[in-house]
Design brief:
Radius of gyration of chain A: 21 Å
Catalytic activity (chains A, B): N(2)-acetyl-L-ornithine + L-glutamate = N-acetyl-L-glutamate + L-ornithine; L-glutamate + acetyl-CoA = N-acetyl-L-glutamate + CoA + H(+)
Oligomer: homodimer
InterPro entries (chains A, B): Arg_biosynth_ArgJ (IPR002813), ArgJ-like_dom_sf (IPR016117), ArgJ_beta_C (IPR042195)
Helix content of chain A: 25-40%
Number of strands of chain A: 15
CATH superfamily of the largest domain in chain A: L-amino peptidase D-ALA esterase/amidase
Largest sheet of chain A: 6 strands, mixed
CATH topology of the largest domain in chain A: L-amino peptidase D-ALA esterase/amidase
Structural class of chain A: alpha+beta
Number of helices of chain A: 10
Pathway (chains A, B): Amino-acid biosynthesis; L-arginine biosynthesis; N(2)-acetyl-L-ornithine from L-glutamate: step 1/4; Amino-acid biosynthesis; L-arginine biosynthesis; L-ornithine and N-acetyl-L-glutamate from L-glutamate and N(2)-acetyl-L-ornithine (cyclic): step 1/1
Strand content of chain A: 15-25%
GO molecular function, one term (chains A, B): L-glutamate N-acetyltransferase activity
Subunit structure (chains A, B): Heterotetramer of two alpha and two beta chains.
CATH class of the largest domain in chain A: Alpha Beta
Chain lengths: 383, 383
């Protein structure tokens, strides 16, 4: 299903030879219309990969005819030659599909600081174009994997229209956005400004609140393409909620497949004075290595939650803080609460609630534990 | 040597039974004058342990007669009872030594969220007082260890006067200050305002730039006590430099003994527009888990350095960034530089230079690699 669940889209995923192990590494997603409306959200990292710089320009027109994605190389920190390669890739797609290169978005993922093997990538575009299909969404999702152990897709179907998508991402997963590539498609008939509004609203509370390892990538890209092929223009709220659901589902799939993780940790901050405070506190907790180690060891170490809260500028009084871990309020009023031995941490999902007792706002950040497997994977894999 | 290297001080370190394993856990440092001038710097964590709240008040007078330190329990997040325990500890020291309780600083380190065993701690104060000696500095340094594998002391002797000190700290090591207790002593004859100025200047560029694991403690304390017993009042600059040297040496000892670490990483940011920019970039690099894993794997992964720089607000142009690892400029002008295979990473110390090409300011942050041993120690040890 994936990006071809919505009508008006074809896709393909092939092995172009970019990856030395011969796994699929090139995906193509084509919008066959009648509309070509699109919106995009990109990494806020100031060191941006060449394909991000290119695609940001493409999205300014609000029109995207095709997206070409490669794994096996991020094309980041590759200088003018890297940008030329991205440009050449877009031109190749444009020539092959008979579309305008200025409407071809490019996404890359993999090792930073290495040029792409263009002698393999460009012929791969032709191979992929020849395999474009209304059933190609899954193959496309497979072709963008790097250290992902599974491919990620999600679909929400409403009254006559659909939002679907695919995502990749397993490491360098942190806000603004997570290290990931995401392509969403819809056959709802909408303009690019509506797509943009719905996409930003959705990513703000989904992908932007996935923070597996605190490391922000140079390549993060989320695209939303509308073909309008359903002929239906849904109400904004209904459409925005469908986009949010797909983003939330894909974000959860990223967390569940994070490199080396053994726990998925839901950090819910409640009773904050402002939503910004809630997010700041949630992120501080989610990024605390000592806490992440404790969770790995199934140790309900609430002292590390408090020490993380204490590093923020959020409104709170230390003596009023409460913390629950998997439903047990182990910290009450800034001190010892219920018996920590009551906390059951055997399951993969761990739920931490931090009550700031300072207002009524809330935010949820998702993260993972810190494990020896994470260290092993990221000291052995150059990415 | 340690805190008794300077004239006018006695110290002791004993096993009071706070630690279940019977290791030394209580230290006493006494200033026998003629002066009792003192200065202190404390954690900027807003969740502060009871002894920090107490000692901050004590230091306001600029006078400290004695410091009592315990390992085996941080007395943090322990509510009103925890503060009463700190107060009772200071009163016990005051009674035993016949000094004013308002001049007794208290420091604690160990597990957060657990009350101290006062039935063992208070008798321990008497035992320690009975063993006070001009040669007790080393025993005091041993008694404040937690997960430290070695005790840390440092001494600088100048023309007739001395600055010496001890430190503990191995985990939750991050700025503002590192998770650590430090007591410095001098027999130079100086007022508390001069001590304060010299101590803040020293910690700003030493302990505050030690960032082993990004986790800021609730208990960090650095104290500087002057007995004036040398009768000598040195020039401020000479004294400040001696304090800085002792702080720098102790900070280095903390990094070398950081939990689970196999590498000591010197992150030097050069050509920054401002010192604040240099520190922000240095910290961002030092806290990047992916980079810390790569260094553990002896992988000169400069792409992770650039992606960390890109998350900051510092002044720089991505295309002008340069990065050297152990003397090899692996990244030039934001792209591929010298051959990364030339980088020799076999030794414990790793030197990363990040050239922002945006000015002439510089800062150095020290950190450690991220290892499976760190994960193991912090998922198994509740602290």
């Amino acid at each position: 299903m994936s990006v071809t669940a919505a009508k008006g889209f074809t896709a393909a995923g092939i092995a172009a030879g970019i990856k030395e192990n011969g796994n699929p590494d090139l995906a193509l997603v084509v919008n066959n219309g009648p509309r070509r409306a699109a919106a995009g959200v990109f990494t806020s990292n100031r060191v941006k990969a060449a394909p991000v710089l290119w695609s940001e320009q493409v999205l300014k027109s609000g029109e995207v005819s095709a997206v070409v994605l490669n794994s096996g190389g991020a094309n980041a920190c590759t200088g003018p030659k890297g940008f030329q390669d991205t440009h050449a890739t877009a031109e190749k797609v444009a020539d092959t599909l008979q579309v305008n290169a200025a409407e071809v978005a490019v996404c890359s993922t993999g090792l930073i600081g290495v040029l792409l093997p263009m002698d393999k990538l460009l012929p791969g575009v032709e191979t992929a174009a020849a395999q474009l299909s209304e059933h190609g969404g899954e193959k496309a999702a497979i072709a963008i994997k790097t250290t992902d152990t599974v491919h990620k897709t999600s679909v929400v179907t409403k009254d006559g229209w659909t939002v679907g998508g695919m995502a990749k991402g397993a490491g360098m997963l942190a806000p603004g956005l997570a290290t990931m590539l995401v392509v969403l498609t819809t056959d709802a008939a909408l303009d690019s400004d509506v797509l943009d509004k719905a996409l930003r609203a959705a990513t703000r509370t989904t992908f932007d609140r996935v923070d597996s390892d605190g490391c922000m990538s140079t390549n993060d890209t989320v695209l939303l393409l509308s073909s309008g092929a359903s002929g239906i223009t849904p109400e904004y709220e209904e459409f925005a909620e469908a986009v949010r659901q797909v983003c939330d589902d894909l974000g959860q799939q990223l967390i569940r497949d994070a490199e080396g993780a053994s726990k998925d940790i839901k950090v819910e901050v409640i009773n904050a004075a402002t939503e910004d405070d809630a997010v700041e506190v949630g992120r501080s907790i989610a990024r605390n290595n000592l806490l992440k180690c404790a969770i790995h060891g199934e140790d309900p170490n609430w002292g590390r939650v408090l020490s993380a809260i204490g590093t923020t500028k959020a409104a709170f009084e230390p003596d009023l803080l409460n913390v629950a871990i998997n439903g047990v309020w182990v910290c009450k009023n800034g001190g010892v609460g219920e018996d920590r031995d009551k906390v059951d941490m055997r399951y993969r999902e761990v739920h931490i609630v931090a009550d700031l007792a300072a207002g009524s706002e809330t935010a949820t950040i998702w993260t993972n534990d810190l494990t020896a497997d994470y260290v092993h994977e990221n000291s052995a894999y150059s990415s």
